[in-house]
Write a structure and sequence with these properties.
The chain is 55% helix and 13% strand. It has a single domain, classed as P-loop containing nucleotide triphosphate hydrolases (Rossmann fold, 3-Layer(aba) Sandwich), CATH 3.40.50. It has a 5-stranded parallel sheet with strand order 2-3-1-4-5, sandwiched between helices. By secondary structure, the protein is of the alpha/beta class. It is built from 8 helices and 5 strands. The longest helix has 25 residues. It binds thymidine-5'-phosphate (TMP). Thymidine-5'-phosphate binds next to helix 4.
């Protein structure tokens, strides 16, 4: 039985999700909650091994459905071994990316139908977040920020601007399409200002 709260952070490249996830976890711990801070693809040894396959190398290394199935395989492992047990003991789980990244990148970005991705998620994973915070930053600014980090995990960053515009379009539309679960967060400005917006959105 799920008792804890499951919060996901979503957004395009360089939108500040990882930093904001850490600050959100610190804030919730300060209020006395047990917090599990984790990320996708990843969060377990098996899922981190899949991450290495999925986020490095050439953009065309995998077909769109191969990417979607790799992300889902990693997600099943992560949910069953980490997220569900944490929620079951009452912890708050803060996860950097989840199903909405698959819908944005493999769906809007690479053309897979959203309904098919959601059905796969329902069947294979069967867990949706209680709250999804969508960090919105102009995607060109975000890509510049991400490129400045110079990470080897840049397979998706290397796909063209039109791809990232479609990803961004999905994230911009999501909070209005699914308002019971999703909130948009203006991710421009200082780290402290964005963190304050996130904490306000929790209420
Ligand atoms: P990160 O850089 O935010 O850690 O995310 C890793 C990359 O993986 C990022 O470019 C987005 C991509 N991704 C997908 O394409 N589909 C997914 O389902 C997930 C979770 C991430």
């Amino acid at each position: 039985m799920q008792r804890g709260r499951f919060i996901t952070l979503e957004g395009g490249e360089g939108s500040g999700k990882s930093t904001q996830g850490r600050l959100l976890a610190d804030h919730l711990r300060g209020k006395g909650h047990e917090v599990v801070l984790t990320r996708e693809p990843g969060g377990t040894p098996g899922a981190e091994a899949i991450r290495a396959l999925a986020v490095t190398g050439e953009p065309d290394r995998w077909m769109p459905w191969s990417d979607a199935l790799l992300m889902t395989a990693a997600r099943v492992d992560h949910v069953e071994r980490v997220i569900r047990p944490a929620l079951g003991r009452g912890a708050t789980v803060v996860c950097d990316r989840f199903i909405d990244s698959t819908r944005a990148y493999q769906g809007a970005g690479r053309g897979l139908p959203d309904a098919a991705l959601c059905r796969l998620h329902d069947d294979a994973v069967g867990l949706w977040p209680d709250l999804t915070l969508v960090l919105l930053l102009d995607e060109a600014d975000g890509l510049r920020r991400a490129a400045a980090r110079g990470s080897a995990e840049a397979r998706f960053e290397a796909i063209g601007a039109a791809f990232h515009a479609r990803v961004q379009g999905f994230f911009v539309a999501l909070p209005a399409a699914e308002p019971a679960r999703c909130r948009s967060i203006d991710a421009s400005g200082s780290i402290a200002a964005v963190s304050a917006r996130i904490i306000a959105a929790l209420a």
